[in-house]
């Protein structure tokens, strides 16, 4: 049950002198032999420092919007359903965790000119592949929008803010109408906002709302509902526009049904089936009346809103709090969950009646799992973030192949020997952020992941994330 930001500190707009451990890039290769470093296992000796390998990324950028954000969402846009060419543009909304309740806001922002470079899975020998595009330094710090004074090289950040009373525990955009936003507040309120005017303003200009000069706008929410306690769990239905569920720390789940484009009927009789706080909620990607919930009581419950206020089924999922879960949109029988003990479990819901539905279980992370999400483009891939400051990407279709590994090492003259105890399904490890809280894949830009932490946001595109999407010539 790892939730809030440990040390709330407003990021400074100019911090070129600082470098994040493991997250900053350098065009200079280390002079000593490289080795894989594992948090919680390996220790840094005196004089050693972590260096990011920029050749591991097609794109890597960092930015912040002031106060840290516990939660954010990537908005669907009209710029193209499948975008593969740099530079990219992305729209977000996020909720702050400010020092004082009155200082909080919902940020609506646009990050444009996200540059990068496509890399070969097997680099050609004798080529210098240490940097990003020629003449462009793509450090995860130096490329930050707030540090790029002329905006010519790094990403450009445009920001608008709406006043929000209290810290934002979680924020979600309606998939069918991305300008509609639901936000969980630490005051116990769930509020729904129409942010269309701000998104339209960002789309029409390249200058308004630049970070550092964005005014905080007072705006009333479309609708507000008060739970008996604060909460974190919330999810929009991907099948029924406007249908919403919200769960709180008082074990209660409430169903929101839209009565118009701007009003909802919230059933005052909650769904009750957990013995402790409801931590996350996920609607089924194929069944409009079915959703799942996970709880501090270690269980996952499956509900059918047509069958009353008790779960259709419930099962023990982990030996500790179940913090987060994700329902696979491409393979709807698969449900992933992450626990406070650092474990990740993958279940095939078709096997529930047989007793053991776990098809994969990983104990790589040693600290609480804070976010988990299936890839929207690859049914076997998912991304995970943890309190150990690691963002990991997994591909369940991978198996250990010693012959293939030996061939790869010969082709690349690879000198780094990965630890033997790493799971073969572990595809990528991203580090450099402190107190990671949430991540999302971009549904319209294959291979792009965005994460938020106490020290801001990262946009990353690992070079070894391959998609089954058609090649550029076929698009």
Give, in spatial order, the strands making up the sheet with the most strands.
2-3-4-5-9
Helix content: under 10%
Oligomer: single chain
How many strand units? 30
Q: Kindly report how far apart the N and C termini lie.
A: 44 Å
Judged by helices, strands and strand pairing, the structural class is mainly beta
Main sheet summary: 5 strands, mixed
Number of helices: 2
> What is the overall silhouette?
globular
Beta strand %: 35-45%
Mean of all residue-level pLDDT scores: 85
Residue windows where pLDDT falls under 50 for at least 5 positions: 13-30, 125-152, 468-475
Radius of gyration, whole Å:
22 Å
In short:
The chain is built from two helices and 30 strands. It has 475 residues and is mostly beta strands.
Written overview of the protein:
The protein is mainly beta. The chain contains 2 helices and 30 strands. A 5-stranded mixed beta sheet has the order 2-3-4-5-9, covered by helices on one side. Strands 11, 12, 13, 14 and 15 form a 5-stranded antiparallel beta sheet that branches. It starts with about 55 loop residues before the first strand and ends in a 13-residue tail after the last strand. The model is unreliable at about 15-30, about 125-150 and about 470-475 (pLDDT under 50).
